[in-house]
Amino acid sequence: MNTPLNLFFSALSDPTRRAVIERLASGPASVSDLAAPHPMALSTFMKHLGVLEKAGLVQTIKKGRVRMCHLDATPLVTAQGWLAWQRRLWETRLDHIDQLALALEAETNHPEAQDDT
After folding, report:
1. Architecture category of domain 4-72 in CATH
2. Helix or strand or coil: residue 116?
3. Of 35, 36, 58, 75, whose CB count within 10 A is highest?
4. C-beta of residue 58 within 8 angstroms of C-beta of residue 50
5. Phi then psi for 55, rounded to 5 degrees?
């Protein structure tokens, strides 16, 4: 299922695409400037750029013969919200496990405190 969140994480699963995002975080760049540090054919790089565009992370605008790329942070905000929700969920679960472990430890260390009803 290609939900926006799935597209986002899939796009960031590749180191080349993460490098493009990191570069664009400092400002717009042309496709050729973005492709230069990556040892691959331009057609292969364009596929990476297409994945980033499909995920909504990159927008391109053609100015004359130059295609300029800009970062769109909207999917980052969506992912950040999902990650925050996951963090709260797991922190709550881990707190419950911690409380259970402490209760079991107290039972083990002080068996006389157990209720024998």
Report:
1. Orthogonal Bundle (1.10)
2. coil
3. 58
4. no
5. -75, -10
pLDDT over threshold 60, residue 50: yes
Give this prediction's pTM: 0.71
What is the 3-state secondary structure of 23-92?
Answer: HHCCCCEEHHHHHCCCCCCHHHHHHHHHHHHHCCCEEEEEECCEEEEEECCHHHHHHHHHHHHHHHHHHH
More confident residue, 29 or 83: 29
Strand order in the sheet with 29-30: 29-30, 66-71, 58-63
Give me 95's structure tokens. 């707190």
Under 8 Å between Cβ of 30 and 70: no
Q: What residues does each domain of the chain span?
A: 4-72, 75-110
